[in-house]
C-alpha cells in the first residue's frame, strides 16, 4: 500500500515533521520535504534516504506565497501516478499573556500556523480534487482547550481547525480526505529550554508520527476527520 503514496511534509527539519518523515520512509513512501532550516532539512532527507526512501527536499517558508506555490507545483509533478498525501507540521509557538500584545510575534504566528497552512492546502486541493488523496494538518489541543499564556497560538490553531472542517466537507465527495490532528504537549524543539511542562510527561514526537503514518497509509475507504492524541497524564 505504501508504494503508491507520495507524501509531502512541511516542517520536516525537526520535531513531528522529522519523525513523520522517517516513519514514512521506513514504510517505503516517496517523500518531498520542506522546511526553513536547510541544514536540518537536508539531515532529515539523508536520514530518510538511509532507510531506503526516495526523497526530494526544498527550502520552504509557509508564510512565503511564492515558496508555497513552488512547493505545491513540485508536489503535483512528482506525485503524478501516485496517491498524494500532504502533511503540514510547520509552525511556530509564541507564548505570553493576552494582556501583553506583541504585534510582530502575533503576525508571525498567524502567518505560519494559519495563513501558510491554508495557502498550501488550497494550492494542493486545486489539483488533488477528483483524483483522491489526503491532507493532514498537525494542530494542537490548544485549538479546543483554553490554555493560559497561549492566546495567539490557540487562535491560530482554532482558525485552522475551522478551515479544516469546512475544507473537509467541500472535498470529501471528490475523494480528498482532510484530517486534523490535535495532540497535547509534545516533546519537540518548539519548547524553549526550561519552559513548559516536564518533558518526560509529554508525548514523544514519534508517537504523533505513528498516528499520522497510520492515517497517511490507510485505504481511501475510511476517513479520519479529527484525532485527539494526549499524553497519559492529560493536559500538563
Structural write-up:
By secondary structure, this protein is of the alpha/beta class. The protein has one domain (2-229): Rossmann fold (3-Layer(aba) Sandwich), CATH 3.40.50.720. It contains six helices and nine strands, in the order βαβαβαβαβαβββαβ. The strands form two sheets. A seven-stranded parallel beta sheet has the order 3-2-1-4-5-6-9, with helices on both faces. It has a two-stranded parallel sheet with strand order 7-8. Strand 1, helix 1 (15-26) and strand 2 (30-35) form a beta-alpha-beta unit. Helix 3 (65-78) runs parallel beside helix 4 and helix 4 runs parallel beside helix 5. It is globular, with a radius of gyration of 17 Å. The model has no long low-confidence stretch (mean pLDDT 93).
Quickly describe the structure:
The protein is an alpha/beta fold. It is 42% helix and 19% strand. The protein is globular.
Quaternary status: single chain
Q: Cα distance, first to last residue?
A: 37 Å
* Strand residue content: 15-25%
Name the helicity range. 40-55%
CATH superfamily: NAD(P)-binding Rossmann-like Domain
Radius of gyration: 17 Å
Whole-number tally of structural domains: 1
Biggest β-sheet, characterized?
7 strands, parallel
Amino acid at each position: 500500500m505504501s508504494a503508491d503514496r507520495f507524501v509531502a511534509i512541511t516542517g520536516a527539519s525537526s520535531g513531528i515533521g522529522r519523525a513523520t518523515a522517517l516513519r514514512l520512509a521506513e514504510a517505503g513512501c516517496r517523500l518531498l520535504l520542506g522546511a526553513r532550516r536547510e541544514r536540518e532539512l537536508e539531515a532529515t532527507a539523508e536520514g530518510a534516504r538511509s532507510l531506503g526512501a526516495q526523497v526530494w527536499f526544498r527550502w520552504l517558508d509557509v508564510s512565503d506565497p511564492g515558496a508555497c506555490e513552488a512547493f505545491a507545483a513540485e508536489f503535483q509533478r512528482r506525485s503524478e501516478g501516485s496517491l498524494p498525501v500532504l502533511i503540514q507540521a510547520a509552525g511556530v509557538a509564541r507564548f505570553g499573556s493576552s494582556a501583553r500584545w506583541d504585534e510582530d510575534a502575533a503576525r508571525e504566528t498567524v502567518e505560519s500556523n494559519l495563513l501558510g497552512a491554508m495557502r498550501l492546502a488550497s494550492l494542493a486541493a486545486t489539483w488533488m480534487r477528483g483524483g483522491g488523496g489526503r491532507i493532514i494538518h498537525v494542530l494542537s489541543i490548544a485549538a479546543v482547550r483554553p490554555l493560559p499564556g497561549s492566546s495567539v497560538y490557540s487562535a491560530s490553531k482554532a482558525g485552522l481547525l475551522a478551515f479544516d472542517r469546512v475544507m473537509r466537507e467541500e472535498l470529501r465527495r471528490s475523494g480528498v480526505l482532510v484530517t486534523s490532528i490535535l495532540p497535547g504537549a509534545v516533546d519537540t524543539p518548539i519548547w524553549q529550554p526550561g519552559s513548559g511542562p516536564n518533558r518526560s510527561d509529554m508525548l514523544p514526537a514519534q508517537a504523533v508520527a505513528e498516528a499520522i503514518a497510520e492515517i497517511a497509509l490507510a485505504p481511501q475507504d475510511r476517513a479520519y476527520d479529527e484525532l485527539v492524541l494526549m499524553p497519559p497524564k492529560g493536559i500538563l
